[in-house]
Specification:
The protein is of the alpha/beta class. The chain has one domain: 2-enoyl-CoA Hydratase, Chain A, domain 1 (Alpha-Beta Complex). It is built from ten helices and eleven strands. The longest helix has 35 residues, at 240-274. The two termini are 36 Å apart. The structure holds ligand LTMAUQNL.
Length: 294
């Protein structure tokens, strides 16, 4: 896990903790780093950048890397705000890594869903102010990452031939979002829009997402990250205890509910995915994704 300054000079987390945020030292980022964590020494804003080509899909390892990165940042008491971003042009996160669901090993599938639930706990329940910098597609579990943040800034679709989309498209694939994800949607965009979106599996273009309150702002592509980091500075200045207590007013009951039903949720997911019908759907969907390419 690496911590980088905005000047692209890299600092390991341990060093950052020992030396304070203003100190800079060097280390090379490795391609295998699934997420890159940077801290702006001037503003104290942390940025976690998902870095799993081609589409930042959430594999077991990717989920674990995101959780580790959040915990590393949270362990530094000076840091109050966090931006979640992607290093990939055009994709924020393509949702769950569907290959994890295809002919799965049962133990790995259990660990996989557990790690996805864990992101919900860590990001939706984070003490940090969290800003999503959505410079590309964010379907399904990609949308969940954005919904788990406090504020969402998306790339504008204006003038784009293939605008990015965001939403919960599960029903289009013949599957259903877990209830905790469904409630995140309802809590964010309201009952009616969530019913429409969930039932029809809608993926919204940016302007529509803004209109229904799924995202909070649209900006040109080249401004998404800097705008998110500026917003993170603003949120980081709000008294932290009051900000966190307010966030928990809206989120604690949801978090507690999943904590109490976590095992049942995992059991349900596992039995759903390993069912023959679901395997046919998953097989067909994987084929359609690779056919799209050819
Ligand atoms: C089917 C799931 C079944 C059961 C789950 C049960 C319960 C859980 C319920 C809900 C929780 C959340 C669920 C999910 O998140 S399911 C995943 C939903 N995601 C999608 O539908 C997005 C699929 N991807 C795309 O639409 C496009 O890839 C995207 C618009 C993101 C980017 O397009 P682009 O043209 O830039 O790239 P592609 O050429 O399409 O893809 C490149 C490469 O990546 C592979 N790929 C894409 N998405 C995924 C993925 N989610 N998992 C694994 N692999 C993915 C794609 O096949 C290409 O691979 P290759 O051909 O080898 O280059």
């Amino acid at each position: 896990m690496l911590v980088a300054t905005l000047s692209k000079r890299l600092l390991r987390v341990g060093q950052a903790k020992r030396c304070g945020l203003s100190l800079r030292s060097f280390s090379d980022a490795k391609d295998k780093d699934l997420v890159l964590t940077s801290i702006d020494g001037d503003t104290g804003v942390a940025t976690i950048t998902m870095n799993q080509a081609p589409v930042n899909s959430l594999s077991l390892e990717m989920c674990q890397a995101i959780t580790t990165a959040i915990k590393e940042v949270e362990s530094q008491p000076e840091i109050q705000s966090l931006v979640l971003a992607s290093s990939l042009p055009g994709v924020f996160c393509a949702g769950l890594d569907i290959t994890e669901l295809h002919k799965p090993d049962e133990k790995r599938l259990t660990d996989f869903w557990h790690s996805f639930q864990q992101i919900y706990f860590d990001l939706y329940g984070s003490r940090l102010a969290t800003i999503a910098a959505i410079a590309g597609h964010a379907p399904a579990a990609g949308c969940m990452l954005a919904l788990s943040c406090d504020y969402r800034i998306m790339v504008s679709g204006a003038g784009s031939k293939k605008p990015s989309t965001i939403g919960l498209n599960e029903t289009k694939l013949g599957i259903v979002a877990p209830s905790w994800l469904g409630y995140q949607y309802i809590d964010t965009i309201g009952q009616r829009q969530a019913e429409l979106g969930l039932s029809l599996g809608l993926l919204h273009q940016p302007e529509q997402a803004l209109a229904i309150g799924l995202v909070d702002e649209l900006v040109p592509r080249e401004e998404v990250l800097s705008r998110a980091q500026a917003e993170a500075v603003k949120w980081g200045k709000i008294p932290a205890k009051a900000r966190l207590a307010s966030k928990m007013l809206a989120r604690k009951a949801r978090l507690d509910h999943l904590a109490a039903t976590r095992k049942e949720d995992n059991d349900f997911f596992r039995s759903f995915v390993t069912n023959e019908t679901a395997q046919k759907i998953i097989d067909g969907y994987l084929q359609s994704l690779s056919k799209k390419k050819s």
